[in-house]
């Protein structure tokens, strides 16, 4: 997918003006936040679980080479074929080559964020192979020719009516022309159409939630069961996975699954948690004859080597998106690439570079909710701050904000001047303060006052009050 | 096609080692740490009281019936088929213990056909109390497709095979010393989606109904 993060401000304006989107975002936020809360109430010590989850992932990252080799050994011993890909283009080539080798016409795909990241669909299409998204949400955004706007609920930005229209436009060719209204009818129609595709596909591609070093297994977590059909029916199963997906053993998967389901959808466990270990055994009645794994770096080793390395603990649960006030008002597309919300604001500049995604680390109020819900305790605000520092050091960012920061720095270094300036500021603001202590219009901050009032300063500065108190005490 | 990108492999591992080697951790230590958890000898926690397991199954939208021996299975499947007004053949896996049952006149086949599968009856190896989960291991007598293709999936589980948590399943598999199967399915309720306006809709691509038959002798 062509990144559009550079035009972040333009994207934001568009999203905020989109009434349908705003409606969808509101329901989404309510449901997801509520579901998670209910699910974690059932655990005696969710905080302990988070701490353990963090430790497992951090331990694995600090011995990543060891666990990757361990995985390689066990995966290949089970007959799997492992491919290492340095970057997106290498990964695409490996996958396209496998498909061509098998003369594939169609590929059924399970939901995979890393698949989006490397842009596999475009590459397959170019090679004359039809990629079919089978997760209902992914299928809907594929029909709409859009990108997913949430890492767990890809079509969270679409209303039912929009989906009804999409289906009636695209499903005519399958002889479906009944007018649909209910969600159940939509799901049933998609199931029927997709079933034929599953049965006829030459290759199945899935992502992976975890890779298990101990056994060489791939773990895929879904609710619809599409991932299992993708990995069972076609002759060839290809797994795409970022190399941070590795965990030491099966017990670690158990613990992380407890965190993942609760944080993502508020479920104790999703309907299907499946472990795939190598291709079908000779005696099995079904399953793929070949199993391939494309292990993707694409900037992850650089990330590991940087102050942002904690980001590699991410298990892609989406909780930080659901709890982010910025994501909640602009939705996923505004972020301009594959990963939205707080995790995306770190990952996008880390993978694509700050030049490409410079505005994203600034799209954050540093309120800290994301960090407090993250199941593997990633300090997202801290990471965003260090990206801002990087940006400042690199002389990037808008001229006005750099200028403002420099002025501020001058004042901050001289307490007397700072004191004088804030007092003057308060005085000036009091001149334009309307009744009820709020300001309706503020020069230089029209972006703020056009949609809400600016709170007027209440009395004196802390410093002045402190001095007064001190003087009183001395008297 | 193996190893045709040896260079990328070496380059990636090289870059990782720049970071990990600094911490001077010998390989031996880590593998010992890993083996420790693998060999963990703690006993397997079986569950004797079905209450929690049953309530978890209900929570995730599965239906349950309890029978006291295998002979009652035929009647149970019959009843399910009649109640749900199913008119097609019921498929059971070849080579499985289910095949040894005398199905009398029942409309049952062992011919697994992916395109026409509507109802399947399969065996679960284990149940997990914590989440109301069923564990199905792929084998010649348990093809994975039979767990996902049908609209109605009936799973037979022996009550002596219910364990407390997922970790107990791993302990059992390790104790077994056999190779892992191609697929381990942990199944918790029927298939579902909430992709359209957060309305939970049961029956996405997998089974619309999950019926668990527990044999409690
Ligand atoms: S950063 Fe944390 S909360 Fe956000 S998706 Fe990743 S694991 Fe989930």
Give the C-level CATH assignment of one domain in chain A. Answer: Alpha Beta
Give me the number of helical elements of chain B.
6
User: Which pair of protein chains has the largest interface, and what are the residue counts?
Assistant: A-B, 96 and 73 residues
For the record, the count of structural domains of chain B works out to 2
CATH class of the largest domain in chain B: Alpha Beta
As residue ranges, the low-confidence spans of chain A are: none
**What name does the CATH topology of one domain in chain A carry?**
Rossmann fold
Largest sheet of chain A: 6 strands, parallel
Large-scale geometry of chain A = globular
Unreliable parts of chain B: none
Strand content of chain A: 5-15%
Taking all residues together, what is the mean pLDDT of chain A?
91
Oligomerization: heterodimer
What secondary-structure arrangement, pairings included, does this model have?
The complex is a heterodimer of chains A (475) and B (217).
Chain A lengths: L7 H10 L1 H23 L4 H17 L1 H14 L3 E5 L2 H14 L4 E4 L3 H6 L1 H7 L3 E4 L2 H8 L16 H11 L12 H18 L2 E4 L3 E3 L4 E6 L3 H7 L3 E7 L3 E2 L2 H15 L7 E5 L13 E7 L3 H5 L14 H4 L2 H6 L10 H12 L1 H4 L11 H5 L6 H14 L5 H15 L1 H18 L5 E2 L6 H4 L4 E2 L6 H13 L1
Helix pairs in contact in A: 3-12, 16-19
Chain B lengths: L5 H15 L6 H13 L11 H9 L3 E5 L5 H11 L6 E2 L16 E2 L9 E5 L2 E3 L4 E5 L7 H4 L3 E7 L3 E2 L2 H11 L6 E5 L4 E2 L7 E2 L6 E7 L2
The structure holds iron/sulfur cluster (SF4).
Account of the protein in words:
The complex is a heterodimer of chains A (475) and B (217). Chain A is of the alpha/beta class and 475 residues long. Chain A is built from 23 helices and twelve strands. In chain A, the strands form three sheets. A six-stranded parallel sheet of chain A has the order 1-10-7-4-2-3, with helices on both faces. Chain A has a four-stranded mixed sheet with strand order 8-5-6-9. In chain A, a hairpin with a 4-residue loop joins β5 and β6 (217-222). In chain A, α3 (46-62) packs across α12 and α16 packs parallel to α19. The longest helix of chain A is centred in the first third of the chain and has 23 residues, at 19-41. Chain A is globular. Chain B is α/β, with parallel strands linked by helices and 217 residues long. Chain B folds into two domains: 1-41; 51-215, Rossmann fold (3-Layer(aba) Sandwich). Helices cover 29% and strands 22% of the residues of chain B. In chain B, the strands form three sheets. A six-stranded parallel sheet of chain B has the order 1-12-7-4-2-3, sandwiched between helices. A four-stranded mixed sheet of chain B has the order 8-5-6-9. Chain B is globular, with a radius of gyration of 22 Å. At the A-B interface, α2, α4, β1, α5 and α8 of A face α1, α2, α5, α6 and β9 of B. β9 of chain A pairs antiparallel with β9 (183-187) of chain B. The complex binds iron/sulfur cluster. The site of iron/sulfur cluster has 13 residues of chain A, from α14.
């Amino acid at each position: 997918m062509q990144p559009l993060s550079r035009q972040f401000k333009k994207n934001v304006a568009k999203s905020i003006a989109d009434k349908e989107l705003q409606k969808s975002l509101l329901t989404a936020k309510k449901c997801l936040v509520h579901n998670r809360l209910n699910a974690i109430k059932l655990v005696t010590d969710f905080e302990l679980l988070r701490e353990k989850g963090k430790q497992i992932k951090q331990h694995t990252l600090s011995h990543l080479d060891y666990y990757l080799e361990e995985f390689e050994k066990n995966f290949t011993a089970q007959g799997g074929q492992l491919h290492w890909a340095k970057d997106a283009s290498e990964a695409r080539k490996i996958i396209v080559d496998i498909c061509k080798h098998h003369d594939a016409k169609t590929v059924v795909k399970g939901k995979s964020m890393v698949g989006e990241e490397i842009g596999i669909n475009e590459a397959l299409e170019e090679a004359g192979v039809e990629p079919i998204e089978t997760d209902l949400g992914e299928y809907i955004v594929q029909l709409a020719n859009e990108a997913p706007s949430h890492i767990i609920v890809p079509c969270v930005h679409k209303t039912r009516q929009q989906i009804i229209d999409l289906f009636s436009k695209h499903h005519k060719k399958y002889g479906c022309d009944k007018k649909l209204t209910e969600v159940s009818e939509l799901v049933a129609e998609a199931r029927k159409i997709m079933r034929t595709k599953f049965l006829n596909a030459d290759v199945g591609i899935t992502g992976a939630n975890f890779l298990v070093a101990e056994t060489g297994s791939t773990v895929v977590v879904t609710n619809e069961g599409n991932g299992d059909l993708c990995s069972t029916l076609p002759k060839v199963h290809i797994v795409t996975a970022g190399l941070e997906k590795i965990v030491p053993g099966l017990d670690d998967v158990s613990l992380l699954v407890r965190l993942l389901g609760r944080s993502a959808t508020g479920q104790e466990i999703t309907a299907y948690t499946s472990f795939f270990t190598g291709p079908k055994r000779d005696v099995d009645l079904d399953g793929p004859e070949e199993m391939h794994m494309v292990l993707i770096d694409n900037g992850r080793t650089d990330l590991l080597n940087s102050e942002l390395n904690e980001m590699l603990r991410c298990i892609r649960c989406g909780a930080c998106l659901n709890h982010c006030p910025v994501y909640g008002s602009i939705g996923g597309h505004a972020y301009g690439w594959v990963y939205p919300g707080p995790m995306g604001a770190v990952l996008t500049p880390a993978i694509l570079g700050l030049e490409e995604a410079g505005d994203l680390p600034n799209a954050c109020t540093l309120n800290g909710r994301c960090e407090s819900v993250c199941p593997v305790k990633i300090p997202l605000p801290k990471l965003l701050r260090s990206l801002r520092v990087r940006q400042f050091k690199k002389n990037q960012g808008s001229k006005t904000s750099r200028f403002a920061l420099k002025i501020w720095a001058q004042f901050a270094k001289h307490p007397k001047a700072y004191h004088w300036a804030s007092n003057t500021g308060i005085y000036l603001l009091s001149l334009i303060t309307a009744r009820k202590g709020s300001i309706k219009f503020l020069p230089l901050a029209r972006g703020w006052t056009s949609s809400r009032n600016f709170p007027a300063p209440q009395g004196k500065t802390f410093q002045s009050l402190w001095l007064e108190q001190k003087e009183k005490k001395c008297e | 096609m193996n190893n045709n990108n040896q260079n990328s492999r070496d380059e990636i591992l090289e870059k990782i080692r720049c970071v990990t080697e600094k911490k001077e951790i010998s390989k031996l230590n880590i593998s010992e740490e890993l083996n420790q958890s693998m060999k963990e000898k703690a006993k397997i926690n079986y569950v004797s009281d079905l209450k929690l397991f049953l309530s978890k199954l209900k929570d995730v939208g599965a239906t349950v019936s309890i029978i006291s021996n295998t002979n009652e299975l035929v009647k149970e499947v019959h009843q399910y088929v009649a109640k749900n007004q199913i008119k097609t053949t019921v498929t059971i896996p070849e080579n499985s213990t289910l095949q040894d049952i005398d199905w009398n006149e029942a409309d049952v086949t062992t011919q697994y056909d992916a395109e026409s599968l509507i109802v399947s009856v399969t065996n679960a190896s284990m149940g997990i109390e914590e989440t109301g989960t069923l564990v199905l291991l792929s084998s010649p007598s348990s093809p994975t497709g039979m767990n996902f293709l049908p609209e109605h999936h009936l799973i037979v589980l022996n009550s002596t095979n219910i364990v407390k948590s997922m970790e107990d399943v791993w302990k059992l598999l390790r104790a077994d010393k056999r190779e892992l199967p191609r697929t381990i399915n942990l199944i918790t309720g029927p298939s579902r989606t909430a992709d359209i306006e957060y309305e939970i809709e049961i029956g996405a691509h997998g089974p619309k109904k999950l019926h668990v038959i527990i044999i409690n002798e």
